[in-house]
Structures are given as C-alpha cells and as structure tokens.
Design goal:
This is Putative tRNA (cytidine(34)-2'-O)-methyltransferase. By secondary structure, the chain is of the alpha/beta class. The protein has one domain: SPOUT methyltransferase, trefoil knot domain (Alpha/beta knot), CATH 3.40.1280.10. Helices cover 28% and strands 18% of the residues. It contains five helices and seven strands; from the N terminus they run E-H-E-H-E-H-E-E-E-H-E-H. It has a seven-stranded parallel sheet with strand order 3-2-1-6-4-7-5. Helix 1 links the parallel strand 1 and strand 2. Helix 1 packs parallel to helix 2 and helix 1 runs parallel beside helix 5.
Amino acid sequence: MTNHIVLFEPLMPANTGNIARTCAGTDTVLDLIEPLGFSVDDKHLKRAGLDYWNKVNINYHHNLPDFIKGIKPDSKLFLVSKFAEQDYTQPDYSEMIKGDFYFLFGKETTGLPEMFMRNNAEKAIRIPQDDSHIRALNLSNTCAIVIYEVLRQQQFNGLERTHTYEYDKLK
C-alpha cells in the first residue's frame, strides 16, 4: 500500500515545490496531472522543494482520464474538495488494501472539474473551514493536513526516526 498526493493541473510552482517536500518527508508519491501552470525547471518550484527533488517519486499524467485509467483496481481514490459532505478524518485509512490510496486535489483557482465531482461525490472529503472568511485553504497546507491524518491512522508506518540528536549539547 502506497499513499499518493495527486495534483490536478497545479498552477503555482511554490505550492508544488512545498508539496514535493512534504512527499519526500512522508514517503508519499506525487502525481502531477498536466497541463502544469509552470515549467518543472522553474526556479520557484526548485527553491520550494529545496534539495529534496531526488527523494520524490513523481508520476506525470497527460490529463485526468489518463490518471484515472492508471489507478490500480484495488486502490482507493479520494477527492479533496471544500464542497464534500464527509470530513477528511472520517474514512478509515488504516484499512489494509492491496492497492494504493490516492488523494486528488484540484487546481488552485477552480478546483476539480464540476462534472467529475458530481459523478464521484461519494469519494469526496473536505477539511472544515469558515467559508465566510476565505475561499479556500492553501493547497500545500491542505495536502499536508490530509496526508498527516492518513499517516496518523496508519501509525506513521515507515516514518520511524533515522537520526538521534544529542540535545544535551545544546544546553
């Protein structure tokens, strides 16, 4: 079982770079659905991802149907949208499945295509927010919130400490 963060037509290189850094730190696959609103050579993208790009497993998909076609049969797809009825903490992500978990996030400006959302409403999850103050949470923050809930339910499997620090030296 592998977790995937999937970005539908991301526009902002800094968001994607930050998300890539989160993926590197959580051993999460990053799937990017084209077209991208930037070049993968963009300096802002690289700066946001720092020197972690070689630690990120990235898959590129030509479009949304291409991505959907590539999902393994035993996998579970979740659509992250502020319009969903179900909160992101409600599904059981600890459930052992043969496939992978995919978390599909929409474009920063318009989200996921409306007809796609209507046809897959039962797969949608949301992070509660006060819509009277903001249109949406930042995409990179949203990805981090969701993936850390998933990992919490999975007992942070594979994220054990690899380094120990001698804090006594700091005193």
